[in-house]
Design brief:
Spore Coat Polysaccharide Biosynthesis Protein SpsA, Chain A; globular; seven-stranded mixed beta sheet; 16% strand; alpha/beta
Length: 212
């Protein structure tokens, strides 16, 4: 089964506010862009992925991610993350109605293509499923079979919300890179320990990240 991925990215100036203790207002937008670039590049290199659409209105991120091969879908609803994902999913389904579809976080800088493939291969067994994040509170991936609605419920406690909505929680071994999103300095240290993509590595090298 080949998958179409939808990746949401808010305007870089507003992204990753919880990284303020690690990256101030100056470097933080660049770090958020690096996360997204490494995520998109790894997703496009995944053998299970057919195409990637990024839903964003950011004037810098759009062209940068398009240059990697992503389709850019404007965030026409401008009503938050879940509305943006629903809008982008509809745009992707209009072009490829037969594709399985998954929403993937934009802040997975350690993402490994083969680990993503294992998650998607497992998700193919279910009508609708999700992968919890490393903290076991949020969600990094929400997947649906062809013809199924995405029905995203991202945000606070999204693991519990997706489970309550009837989605199957995926249990896949050795896919840490697909679960390690980055919201805090601690998350960034964990991603760096896994091994991040080149753009995040370069951006993080310019930061002073204290050891725990």
């Amino acid at each position: 089964m080949r998958w179409s991925l939808v990746i949401p990215l808010k305007p870089l100036a507003l992204a990753k506010s919880r990284l303020a203790d690690t990256a101030g207002d100056g470097p933080r937008p660049g770090l958020a862009l690096a996360f997204a670039q490494d995520t998109v590049a790894a997703a496009l290199a995944c053998p299970a992925v057919r195409d990637v659409a990024v839903v964003t209105d950011d004037a810098l991120a759009g062209p940068e991610l398009a240059a990697l091969g992503a389709r850019i879908v404007p965030d026409t609803p401008r009503s938050g993350l879940n509305a943006a994902l629903t809008h982008a999913a509809a745009a992707v389904r209009a072009a490829h109605p037969e594709s399985a579809l998954a929403a993937l976080n934009a802040d997975l800088p350690a993402l490994r293509p083969l680990e993503l493939a294992r998650v998607l291969d497992t998700a193919a067994q279910f009508p609708r499923s999700f992968l919890p994040d490393a903290a076991a509170i949020g969600t990094t991936l929400l997947a649906v079979a062809p013809g199924r609605e995405l029905l995203p419920a991202f945000g606070a406690d999204s693991r519990a919300r997706h489970r309550a909505s009837g989605a199957t929680e995926l249990v896949v071994d050795a896919v840490d890179s697909v679960r390690q999103d980055v919201d805090t300095g601690e998350d960034l240290r964990a991603a760096l320990a896994l091994g991040v993509g080149p753009r995040t590595a370069a951006a993080a090298a310019r930061l002073l990240i204290p050891e725990q």
